[in-house]
Amino acid sequence: MLHREMLDYVGDISQIGGIKRYQMLEGKAKGVEAVDVDDGQGLRYTILIDRGMDLGKLVYRDCGFTFQAAAGVTAPQYYNERGEEWLQSFGGGFLTTCGLTQAGDPCVFEGQPYGLHGQVSNLPARLERCEADWQGDDYMMEVAGRVCQTRHQGVQMSVRRSIRTALGSGHIQIEDRISNQSSDRSALMLLYHMNFGYPFLSPDTRMYIPARHTEGWDEFSKRHMEQQEEMPVPCARAAHYTYLHELRSDSAGNTGFMLWKERDDKFIGVQVRYNQANLPYLGQWMYPKKRDYIMALEPCNNHIKGTALEEQYGTLRSLEPQEEVTCRLDIRFFSTREKWNELKTELEALTR
Question: Pfam families given for it (predicted)?
Answer without folding.
Answer: DUF4432 (PF14486)
